[in-house]
Design brief:
By secondary structure, this protein is α/β, with parallel strands linked by helices. The chain has ten helices and twelve strands. Strand 1 and strand 2 form a beta hairpin.
Length: 296
Amino acid sequence: MKYAVAIDIGGTNTRVALIDENYEIEQRIQFPTDADDPYATMNQIKEVIDGFDKDIVGVGMSCPGPLDLMVGKILTTPNLHGKWHGFYVEKELENLIHKPVQLENDANLAALAEAVIGEGKDSNIVQYLTVSTGLGAGLVINKEVFQGAHGFANEVANTCLWNNGPSHGSIYPGGIEAICSGTAIEQRAKKAGLEVAHAGEVNDLALQGNKVAKEIMDDAKLYLANYIAGIQAFVDPEMVILGGSVALKIPGFVEEVESLVKEKVYAVIAPLVKVRKSTLNEDSGLLGAACLAFSK
């Protein structure tokens, strides 16, 4: 049996998992990420990997971005500081563990897991969108992540769909993340005077007849459908898979988005539109990292 190591470096915690070639997670260890010193985190990762007494073929890893995937470097990230910025994370870890390391962003890895072992495993062209705290995406063609010319393909959060539309944080006004993500839904509701803790509660109010909440939820579905219709036109994927808490926890969300997409494409394309829920759990990023390690 061969094994891969999957690593998810987050702004708060780092997860390291040992995954076999059947994509079963055999061991999983989590520890706090040192937000100021990448070398401290690299050394902890090495200690964990050294404790895996298995035939490890390689390592797949995700980090907060944006990333320079061409050279395996973290460019900048809001939740990690100091020496993390400009850190060649791929090369530095390879030098420590003497195993090949492949860096990807978390949405691309989730997309890869969906395309290899998830809902899209029987498809050649799979588009993935995670609609959660933020909005991320990944495109997988013939079981390989499409990175684009510079490694920034599917960095979609700032894609502007709504002139002078809502914004939050550093997201451009009218960017898709500022309309459709869970954070966007929650913040728009709070700005409108609604007392809510998350997007699910906004949806609950909408179902109870609250007009403001319904408008916010309708906007999220409509603009996401507009965006997916554009993807259908440009990419012609066999399947679009939606993951993340908004897509998975709000009843009927994915089904309604699919129906809207079919209204926004050519009639001959509508029967080919497939918008599906992710069938993988919160471990999709780790599983995708294992897929990447095995494929390389």
